[in-house]
Amino acid sequence: MTDHDFKKFADIWGQAQEIYNRTVTSGTIELVYQALKHLDIEEVRRALTLHIQSPDTGQFPPKPGDVIKFARGDSQSRTLHAWAKVERAIRSVGHYSDVAFDDPLIHAAIERMGGWPKIAMVESEKDIVWLRQRFEAQYRTYAIHKPDQWPAFLPGISTQQNAQIGQHTRGRMPGKNITLIGDEHRAKQVIDQGRGALANGTQVKRVTDSSLSGLIENMQTKQRGAA
Length: 227
Fold this sequence. Notes:
The protein is mainly α. The chain is built from eleven helices and four strands. Strands 1-2 form a two-stranded parallel sheet. α3 crosses α4, α5 (about 75-90) packs across α8 (about 125-145) and α6 crosses α8. The mean pLDDT is about 85.
């Protein structure tokens, strides 16, 4: 969700609590919103409906954890699902490309483990098993204690080797050609809400169409001045 969704979220959350004769304060709604901000507004709506309909949980007022469980599954299933996306990307995308997943916790975990090239260059099935164990442990940590920030995208080996914006090879601009993994809409949200990625200790921001136009114009101005 974005801040534009806050009012809609407040209405949905308030209506769900009214079913259980509960009232909510503005401070409580703000706290719950921050806990669920990584979800889409429609995911929240569906999860609340499933909670209310559930014969196991429907008699209790929903809590943020209930919404996350119905929206994305419990922590174990979320971790397994996250690793499945990472492994699929390792095998199909590889270490060269910049990538963005539809889950910010994946970004945070992979950055913590040394970055995408280090993860994606794994060679043997034995290494895959070891990597999976490390990833799942790190992901579960972030599932419990969500990081305050995460990289907008995970730089591939090209960006690692050309960390400064404007230095690019093979026609690729770092952060410009990003392979999206998982749900495309959510992956774009992860990019929009993330911070600049790190490559070789240097922060690398995503290159958008507008910033690329400005960069090209600046380069052309320098070339005219040199002439």
